[in-house]
Amino acid sequence: MRAAERPPDPAGTGWPSRLHVVTGKGGTGKTSVAAALALALATGGHRTLLVEVEGRQGIAQLFGVEPLPYAEFHLADAPGGGEVRALAVDAEEALLEYLDMFYKLGAAGRALRKLGAIDFATTIAPGLRDVLLTGKVKEATTRSTGQRRVYDAVVLDAPPTGRIGRFLNVTAETARLAKVGPIKTQSEGVSALLRSPMTAVHVVTLLEEMPVQETVDAIAELTQLGFPVGRVIVNAARPPLTTGRAVTRAELKRGLAAAGLPTDPATVAGLAGEARDQRVRRELEDSLRTDLAELGRPVTELPLLPDGVDRAGLTAFAGILRRAD
C-alpha cells in the first residue's frame, strides 16, 4: 500500500487509520487509553501491536506483566478471537538492528555496544534516538507476510504533548539534513507515513484547564507541521450538569432528615459548601467541553473510574472507543 492511500477499516470501527499515535499531557492516562484502543481495534479476530517508546514500562505495569522486552510478544486476548501484542522499543537495540539491516554490521554493532559507542552516538545526536524509535514503529506498521499486513493496526503510546511535535517531526528534519544514503531514505519513508492518511494522532486530556490548554496547543502545532490529527479523548469524565439551579439549604436539610442523618446548621452548611464547590467545578468542566468542541475534532469521553483502571476498566474503555462515532 502506498502511504498516500486511505487504509481500510478491518475492525469495522470509526478508527480507519493503521497507525494510531496517542499523546497527552502527563497524568491524563494516555497509556491506559492507548492500551484500551489496542484492545478495541483487536476485537473481532484482528491483531494489533501496542508500542511504547519512553522506557517507562507503563504497559507492563498496566497489565501486571514482566517488563516488556525488545521483542513483539502476546500481551492480551481481545473479544472475538483478537490479539494484542506489545513491544517496548529501545533506542540502542533499534540502532543495532538498523546497523545490521542497512550496513550488515551485526557482530560489529554488538562490539560497538560493548565499547559504549552506541550510547555515545545517541547522546551526542539526541534526534537520532527519535529517528530510531519512529523507524521501528514504521517498520511494524508496514510489515507484510505475503499479501497481508502482519498487524491490522499499530497503537503507539507516544511522548507527551509537550514533546510530540518534535518527536514526530525529527525524521523530516533528518531527511532534510542528510544528503544521501539509508538514513535519508529511511527518514523520508517514516516522515511520509506519519503525514499520510495511514496515521492519526489522538490527544488525551482531562477536563482541567492545563491539560485542555496543552491539547489546544498540541493540535495547533501538529496541524502546522502537517500531521493528521484524529480524536480528542477526554479521560476520567463526569456527565455534564443536568440541573438548572443549585440545591437550597432547605432541600439539603429535608434530604438529610429523610436519610436519618444529622440536620444541625453546621452539617447543612458544610454540605451546602461542598455542593457549591462541586457545581463550580462541573460548570468549569462544561466550559472546557465547549473549548474542546471548538477544535473541530471528534471528541470521545471515557468515564471516571473511582477505583482506577484495571483490566475490567480497559475492557470497558475498549467498548466505548470501538463504538465511537
From TrEMBL:
One of its GO terms (molecular function) is ATP binding. Keywords: ATP-binding, Nucleotide-binding. It holds the Pfam family ArsA_ATPase. Gene3D superfamilies: P-loop containing nucleotide triphosphate hydrolases. InterPro entries: ArsA/GET3_ATPase-like, ATPase_ArsA/GET3, P-loop_NTPase. Residues 20-174 form the ArsA/GET3 Anion-transporting ATPase-like domain. PANTHER family: ARSENICAL PUMP-DRIVING ATPASE ARSENITE-TRANSLOCATING ATPASE, ATPASE RV3679-RELATED. This is Arsenite efflux ATP-binding protein ArsA. It comes from Micromonospora matsumotoense.
